[in-house]
Design brief:
The chain has 446 residues and is mainly beta. Helix content is 6%, strand content 49%. The strands form 2 sheets. Strands 3-5-6-7-8-9-10-12-13-14-15-18-19-20-21-22 form a 16-stranded antiparallel barrel.
Length: 446
């Protein structure tokens, strides 16, 4: 994660008056956007345990909340990321903070007219072909439950810093523990396991489904990134990322080899509305190696990707989202195709050689803040591959994704949401299947 302004420090310190019963439609509502007000309320209610020092020597509450607000200063934060921890240990001068928190998610769903065997709605995994046994499914899961640890400091000889570790119960069988993030940020530099620079999680619509839109670019890589923001308006970043490519293997013809050239990613962004609105351009270049077993030599193909994304606050009640991407050899960065081996496919008519197929994705969404604690989001997405004479009949051609939800915030740390999901997968041989899902998700953070 890198420096960026996601929330106004003055607002988060509580300098703007607020009322828990304020209706966002009222003309005399507070100046903050609803999500800003919710974050400000969270920080006010955070319990701080000071280390050393008498009570009269401890930092003012405004300084405490200013430090806590740095938890949200992140250009790669998505809508399902954890909130700041409810309990935080802090030095008496508020220059060092350490917190341990968690998010508990309980999810229940029902599929009809098709099914996906899992808690996440990946259109790639829609059961094909349809059979009487795969037409309906009822399930529940705690996948998405997260534990995290955060340490933040400032005004040190090396500059401001932030260390973060996050793991979630969404590994094997939707319940195994899996490390998701582990990074260290010092000033404008970030190193560790973090969200790729070739992504824009904030521009993805706020869906409850853990997988999200089928074409979203939200991969985590071990990387080293430099990112800098000027005047809270302009941001540029570049990173060197350790790759994990996924080329196709054919018995006796091709074989995957270890990656030995890093991926290079960069972005440029313009932001306004205190960082809540932005336009971002991102790109990635990579070299994907494989073994040609016919000629007994190593070969490589060049992959590239480009993405244009935006999130725009259209007044206080409506947020618009849009993401479009195109590339070759970057299928493993996308939501659906990261499940298969689509970075490189077999070259038609040339045994032992692979090529990088073209992939195109588009996502659009809108969120309406109906009341201060009630919102609704709609998301529509598609992901398509352009393959040269596919060899396998079950090669993925395109997927379509629809999500419509409503979320009620019981408190600033308790949410209850319901969502309707519809998806379709089409293969190059013409076979296709779809699925419909209704789910309810209860989320508690502390």
């Amino acid at each position: 994660m890198a420096a960026g302004i996601a929330m106004p420090a003055m607002a988060l310190s509580g300098s703007v008056a607020s009322n828990d019963q304020t209706d966002v439609n009222a003309p005399d509502s507070v100046l903050l956007y609803p999500e800003e007000q919710q974050r400000a309320d969270l920080l006010k209610r955070t319990k701080v345990i000071f280390i050393n020092g008498e009570a009269d020597e401890r930092a003012h509450r405004d300084s405490v909340e200013s430090m806590l607000a740095r938890f949200y200063v992140d250009q790669f934060r998505n809508t399902q990321a954890p909130e700041a921890p409810y309990f935080t240990f802090m030095s008496k001068d508020a220059n060092l903070a350490m917190g341990l928190g968690a998010v508990v998610k309980v999810r229940g769903w029902f599929d009809w007219n098709g099914m996906i065997d899992g808690a996440s709605f990946n259109t790639y995994l829609i059961n094909m072909p349809k059979t009487p046994e795969t037409m309906k499914s009822l399930g529940a899961s705690v996948a998405g439950t997260t534990i995290y640890f955060s340490v933040m400091g400032r005004h040190t000889p090396i500059g401001d810093y932030h260390a973060y570790i996050e793991g979630g119960f969404n590994g094997y069988n939707n319940s195994g523990f899996k490390l998701k993030k582990a990074w260290m940020q010092i000033g404008d530099w970030t190193a560790g396991l973090a969200t790729t620079t070739f992504s824009d999680p904030a521009a993805q619509p706020e869906v409850l489904d853990g997988a999200g839109a089928n074409g979203k670019m939200d991969k985590s890589n071990v990387l080293v990134r430099y990112m800098h923001t000027w005047r809270n308006r302009w941001t540029v970043a570049g990173s060197v990322e350790f790759p994990s490519s996924q080329p196709q293997e054919q018995e006796g013809l091709t074989r995957k080899v270890r990656d030995y050239v890093p991926d290079f990613a960069a972005l440029g962004q313009y932001q306004w509305n205190r960082g809540l609105s932005h336009v971002r351009v991102a790109g990635v270049m990579r070299r994907i190696a494989y073994r040609d077993l016919v000629e007994q030599r190593n070969r490589a193909a060049i992959g590239w990707g480009a993405q244009l994304s935006t999130v725009v606050r259209a007044g206080r009640l409506v947020t618009l989202y849009g993401v479009g991407s195109v590339g070759q050899g970057v299928a493993s960065y996308s939501g659906d195709l990261s499940i298969g081996n689509y970075d490189l496919l077999s070259r038609p008519g040339v045994a032992g050689q692979l090529y990088a197929p073209t992939t195109v994705s588009a996502t659009a969404g809108v969120k309406v803040q109906i009341l201060r604690n009630l919102s609704s989001t709609a998301c529509l997405a598609t992901l398509r591959t352009y393959v040269k004479h596919p060899i396998n009949d079950d090669t993925y051609k395109y997927g379509q994704y629809l999500a419509v939800n409503m979320v009620y915030s019981i408190t600033s740390r308790l949410d209850l949401g319901v969502e309707y999901l519809a998806g379709k997968r089409m293969n190059y041989d013409g076979t296709h299947a779809n699925d419909n899902r209704a789910e309810a998700v209860f989320t508690a953070s502390f």
